[in-house]
Specification:
7 helices; Arp2/3 complex 21 kDa subunit ARPC3; 193 residues; 2 strands; mainly alpha
Length: 193
């Protein structure tokens, strides 16, 4: 049996690029930690602004750095840092009903970044599409995690139904922030030309 290996494109970063990427990843995890402090306590899944951060990071940093930033955030949470919803600390977050949401964040960030990069000239509605696809990954992960504790019907009732409005609002907010930033950047670049 013969296995064929596709050639992998390996990116080599200079020391300066590596430092910049490291800083961006660290700042991305800090953004998630900051947004998680804002919490509306709903049992068993609190409403936070974490997903807004998960939506913004891949649009700004790209898929790989965003996934790394979210992964770093989860590592920090596992170390007991008080960065989970409401500024709480729980190194055993993987054993809580919300573990599925948290575990889905890195994958959702990567998928959003990949889908958003498919469009060479980002449009508001293509950004909404990328964010919606990422939100579907978060919903699937969250419902699967909750179903381990409550069963599938209650998982949907606890983890999706109360949040539909806020999900749509966060998708719209992230797309608006991103495209607002692009417009400001384009105006500055035209002013320099």
């Amino acid at each position: 049996m013969v296995f064929y290996r596709k050639s992998l494109k390996v990116e080599t970063l200079s020391k300066k690029e590596w430092m910049l990427a490291s800083i961006q990843i660290a700042l991305g995890s800090l953004l998630l930690a900051t947004l998680s402090v804002f919490k509306v306590p709903i049992y068993p899944t609190p409403m936070t602004l974490q997903t807004l951060g998960v939506f913004l990071l891949p649009l700004v940093l790209g898929p790989k750095k965003a996934m790394a930033a979210v992964g770093l955030y989860l590592i920090e949470a596992s170390c007991g840092w008080p960065i989970l919803s409401g500024g709480t600390s729980n190194p055993l977050w993987i054993m809580t009903p919300n573990f599925g949401f948290l575990l889905s964040f890195p994958l959702a960030a990567f998928v959003i970044g990949v889908v958003a990069k498919r469009f060479s000239n980002p449009h508001f509605f293509t950004t909404i599409l990328a964010l919606f696809i990422g939100q579907l990954f978060i919903i699937c992960g969250g419902v699967l995690g909750l179903s381990c504790f409550f069963g599938i019907e209650k998982a949907w009732a606890y983890g999706v139904t109360p949040f539909i409005g806020s999900m749509l609002a966060k998708i719209f907010m992230a797309a608006t922030f991103y495209h607002g930033g692009l417009q400001i950047k384009n105006k500055k670049n035209k002013g320099k030309a």
